[in-house]
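Practice problem: predict the structure.
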Amino acid sequence: MKTRVAVIAIIIENPESAEGVNTILHAYRQYVIGRMGIPYHAKNVNIISVAVDAPEPEITALSGKIGRLPGVSAKTAYSKI
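Answer:
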């Protein structure tokens, strides 16, 4: 199946959801190219960017599952290739 490269931007406003985010990312680990997490203490949020190379339905499912967690936002930007 054809894959696409994408970046998923995740903002965690509810610290209790951080474990759920990590659990979901672990389940999709075969598609993860890399990730970077930044705790932003001034605003009490955590910011994570995840680079993936996966079939588009898998990227959509990953982003959707993360975005449905309480206090978590997720948006995806796709490459054109």
